[in-house]
Design goal:
166 residues; alpha/beta; Rossmann fold; four-stranded parallel β-sheet; 5 helices; globular; SAM-dependent_MTases_sf; MeTrfase_7; 7-methylxanthosine synthase 1-like; methyltransferase activity
Length: 166
C-alpha cells in the first residue's frame, strides 16, 4: 500500500469522517482571513490577469465544508479588491487538489449551495475542478496558477520549492 493511500482523510459525512471532525482546521482557516485580505490586495495591485480569470489551486483541500470556506474567502477578497481597483468582472477557475483517495464526491455535493452563495452583483463565473494527485509531483504547467492555497498540508513537504521567493 502506498503512503498516499495510508495518509488520506476519512471521506463521507459519518461521525468519524474528516468532515465531522475538522473544527480545529475550520478555526485556523478563519483566523488567517485577515492575512489573506492584506496579501491578496497586494498581489492584485502587482498582477493583472490578461483575461480577468483568476486561477486558484487549493492544495490538500481534503473533503467536507472546510474546503469551500478557504476558496470562498479567497474569492470574496479578490472580488472586493477588484471593485476597489476598478477591475473588470472576474472569472474564477478553481482547482481542488488532494490525493487520489480523497472523497471529491462529498465536495461536489456542496457545490450547488456554494455557487448560490457566491452569486452577486458583478461577481463572475466560477469553474470548479478536481485535480487529484500528490503535490510532490507536477500538477499544473509552469506559470499556470495565480494563487496557491494550503491550510493544512504544507508540513508534508520535505523541502522548499526552488521557485519560492523570500
Amino acid at each position: 500500500m502506498t503512503m498516499e493511500r495510508l495518509l488520506c482523510m476519512k471521506g463521507g459525512m459519518g461521525e468519524t469522517s474528516y468532515a465531522k471532525n475538522s473544527i480545529l482546521q475550520r478555526k485556523a482557516i478563519m483566523k488567517v482571513k485577515t492575512l489573506l485580505d492584506e496579501n491578496l490586495l497586494k498581489l492584485m495591485m502587482l498582477k493583472k490577469t490578461s483575461n480577468g480569470c483568476w486561477k486558484i489551486a487549493d492544495l490538500g483541500c481534503s473533503s467536507g465544508p472546510n474546503t469551500l470556506i478557504s476558496i470562498s474567502n479567497i474569492m470574496e477578497i479578490i472580488h472586493k479588491s477588484s471593485l476597489k481597483l476598478n477591475h473588470k468582472k472576474l472569472v474564477f477557475q478553481i482547482y481542488l487538489n488532494d490525493l487520489f483517495e480523497n472523497d471529491f464526491n462529498n465536495i461536489f455535493k456542496l457545490l450547488p449551495d456554494f455557487h448560490q452563495s457566491m452569486q452577486g452583483e458583478n461577481f463572475g463565473a466560477c469553474y470548479m475542478n478536481a485535480t487529484p494527485g500528490s503535490f510532490y509531483g507536477r500538477l499544473f504547467p509552469n506559470y499556470y496558477i495565480d494563487i496557491f492555497h494550503s491550510s493544512y498540508c504544507v508540513h508534508w513537504l520535505s523541502q522548499v520549492s526552488k521557485c519560492t521567493h523570500s
